[in-house]
Amino acid sequence: MDLNQLTTFIQHIETQLASSPVSVKRLFHGRGRRWPGLEQLTADWLANQLIISLFKQPEPLFIRALEAELTSLTQRENWRNTGATCIAIQHRYQTNQQLEVIWGTLEEKPVVDEHGLKFQLDIGKNQNFGLFPDMSEGRQWVQQHATGKHVLNLFAYTCGFSVAAIAGGAERVVNVDMAKASLSKGRENHKLNQHDLSRVQFMGHDIFKSWGKIRKSGPYDLIVIDPPSFQKGSFALTRDYRKILRRMNELLADQGSVLACVNSPVVDCNFLIETMKEEAPFINFQQRLDNPPEFEDIDPQASLKALVFR
Questions:
Q1: Strands (E), 137-269
Q2: Which residues form the signal peptide (predicted)?
């Protein structure tokens, strides 16, 4: 990380804050490689808290300078006008994901609003916060296309797609994820939005060992597939995505739709398009959803890919 580029980083954050950021937003996306020397740095605005993430261990001099710049930022009038309550640095390169508060007081479990829907975050203990802001357009798409649908949400995590689907009038949503703790948080997200939980099913199972149970609750009018790029011992992208698409024939209803997502720079859109042709040739590619502009990447194929099939 380039110490000389820190001024650019702080200036960009100030510019973004001046536009009255919403409850949850990416303010700086160094991972998009548009700012040389800052590729391993991101900044998120989460319920009036500025969370800086470092993805590679920096030199001690860089950390000291970053902390000094952030402390200086808190003295400026435009910062005070934001209502900010905390600045913290998350060291994503460390095994324990250490989060260091450098100003204010951290609220670990704030509730944020995204397009009128409420989600509870969990900041400080885990690598992720409980909601992926780059997928906001995907959640909106699901909400807009869920009316009367029977929805399957694979790799549901904290059930963001499920919340969007029920808000959009889905008849029923089945969430599948092997992490039961994440599904419990998803249940709470539904409760935050005063949803009827009798329309939502939570299956805490390994997807690859539970096709019978998943199929029994089908067929589905809309299937969302949003797996991790890699999860040791449970998911390898190029090998296991194919296994999922192979099941579409027995899961997807006539005229059904699939939102297939992948967030890995090692594959492009053609990976999903061609694999779908091979494993489920009756399903046709329709469109790629736009990513939020704040997640712009110098290589669009390296960023999140959310593709609609029908």
A1: 150-154, 172-176, 200-203, 220-225, 230-231, 235-236, 252-262
A2: none
